[in-house]
Amino acid sequence: MNKNELIASIASEAGLTKADAGKALDAFVSSITTALKGGDEVRLVGFGTFSVAKRAATTGRNPQTGETIKIKARKQAKFKAGKTLQEAVN
To answer: CA separation (Å) from 79 to 16, 21, 34, 63?
Structure first.
């Protein structure tokens, strides 16, 4: 499912226009992004938890030259499915 299909699904399920559903989806994504940038977790009971994990700096190897390279430390967004979502999928 791509973004346009998700917007159409939200519109039909909630009885909204596609424009309103698109605005709602954009607001949802923006709110989660803002919270994660601020270092917060976003917990949606039954659905899952969005969080930020820190990855330490490591060394890697360029496969073409075999040269050792440094990989910088960074933050990575993570999602852990909630129990209800996990049960629904299985």
So the answer is: 27, 23, 15, 30
Tens-digit pLDDT profile for residues 25-56: 999 999 999 999 999 999 999 999 999 999 99
Q: Which residues of 35-64 are buried (b: 16+ CB within 10 A; e: fewer)?
A: ebeeeeebeeeeebebbeeeeeeeeeeeee
Secondary structure (DSSP) of 43-54: EETTTEEEEEEE
Structure confidence at residue 25 (pLDDT): 96
Q: For residues 83 and 46, is the Cβ–Cβ distance under 8 A?
A: yes
Are 73 and 53 in contact by the 8 Å Cβ rule? The answer is no
Alpha-carbon span 18 to 4, nearest angstrom: 9
Question: Taking the CA of residue 65 as centre, how many other CA atoms within 13 Å lie in the half-sphere pointing to its CB?
Answer: 5
